[in-house]
């Protein structure tokens, strides 16, 4: 909970600071107020459409509730933000899926190079190890120079075995070996790192499909989660990537990284609003402990401090 509080603080610095500054200058609820608010939302990477819809809803709601003072309006905005963040329903949806019968959980991590896949896997491996679970890592990003070594390094740090292939090995063969090992050793988790870039987009998508088929050969009901890792500091670009991957891969959730360095935390809102995919984890730094679960309501409320 402490980490989350700390994380929230960092995550909300940019977007939250703007909102707070905006409200500090509050005078009266008029058309200028809503225009300025819409502009602020767009500048914070909330996205044009989301910013417009949100502003319209706020205008209606403020009228309905006869909101006049600064505090009235803040209350209305927080309500609307919570609605937006939480629109995928129950908060259980935000948690990583875990089999409750002790069966192996396989999490597949996809996303472009540099998004933070390897780092997220390292952090998550640390979390599971700290919980006393057994973890196997699969270094199936055999294309990016250094990706395998990076994961091997994390494996050493958190004391988890890493399955690797030869240089330029077929990623699916690495995944096959890793899945077989995790099943044989009755591991709790298998975390699979995948390539972020191949010769072209089509090859990448074919490769991801092949990896999924390979997993299903040994574990028919897997993967438990296919998580798209997005660099939150890239703003609207992250949204475009998400749409691209979503077309070809059956995603179950998102991981938003680098929210610590982002002054435009609004992208969380844009992605939630447009992708209808739960944000399962957020990355808040480069250290092993800088990973938090995402809580929609807390996030929205935490914007105002
Ligand atoms: P991959 O290519 O998707 O596997 O990306 P990496 O895991 O190699 O991450 C790319 C860079 O982003 C590395 O320098 C990481 O240390 C950094 N990184 C990853 N997640 C975070 C985060 O949440 N916050 C910050 N500040 N840096 C991160």
TrEMBL record:
The keyword Hydrolase applies. It comes from the Bacteria. Residues 278-291 form the SRP54-type proteins GTP-binding domain. It is a peripheral membrane protein. Keywords: Cell membrane, Cytoplasm, GTP-binding, Hydrolase, Membrane, Nucleotide-binding, Receptor. It catalyses: GTP + H2O = GDP + phosphate + H(+). It is an enzyme of class 3 (hydrolase). Part of the signal recognition particle protein translocation system, which is composed of SRP and FtsY. This is Signal recognition particle receptor FtsY. The gene is ftsY. The chain holds residues 108 to 412 of 415 of the full protein.
